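Sequence in, structure out. Go.
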Amino acid sequence: MEARLTERINNAELLAKAYTGAALRRQAHALADDIVLTITGKKGIAQTQIVFKGANGGTSEIYVSDYDGHNAMPITQDHKLVAAPYWVPGRRVIYYTSYLRDNPDIYSQDLQTGVRKLIARYSGLNTSAAVSPDGSQVAMILSKAGSPDVWVAHADGTGLKQLTNTREDESSPCWSPDGKTLCFTSRMRGRAELYTIPSAGGQMKRLTTIGAINTTEPDWSPDGQQIAFTALMGNFQIWTLNVQTHETKMLADGEDPSWAPNSRTLIFARRTGSGYVLSLLDEPTKKMKDIARVSGSCSQPCWAR
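Output:
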């Protein structure tokens, strides 16, 4: 396939390239990314992938697909319950929670070799693994000390360190792009609210989310400028918080947002009458589009970065 991109006003040729050696769909995605890069100077997302939870009946599995839901492949085939998949930045490795041994434990799985490793299997809850941007650490929610708290460890699960120590529940940690800060949800004041804490340890700091309450499931944009999150406002809604200005904005009905590498597009779960579907959301324009889905309910997406 050959493609040319020409600027209409002065008829200047911006792009001229031949795409070969791959399926037509892959060629088209490569072309789309080249057009975005040529026009905006930023990388496109057409060749990126996502990981998500697919539930059918009483069990669920982890799936990986193209960003638009096509070419979905199951990563697990255990016929158990799974949750909270997370893509390791810059690698083809997934972390997730599984009831494979009848307890919510955290595993990592290499997509190239298929090798699965046990990361955390303590008494009680082991979930919400989130790997640091440099891949060296993993933040987790563990209840081994009593209530669910935020812990960090080396990527293989060793060297555990407890960051929070509250009587209430913490959940859903995510990393700032520089790896210095974690954002998470805590019910320390009763209602679910967003907090930050230094990843090396320190004091919790509550984030003010004006207009949004019952805030959960934060995800920090790769450019560091915004945190997307879920708010329960009668129904579940996707909001963003500007880290610098503290401005908040409601985007759409849905939950569990995850940023694309371009810090512009979000993928999230949207409730329907037959379960959950995954939808793409362009943050500046609020335009949405459902992606192709596997059989059953699809939720808890995470974008590869």
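Check: Helices lie at 24-40. The chain has a mean pLDDT of 92.
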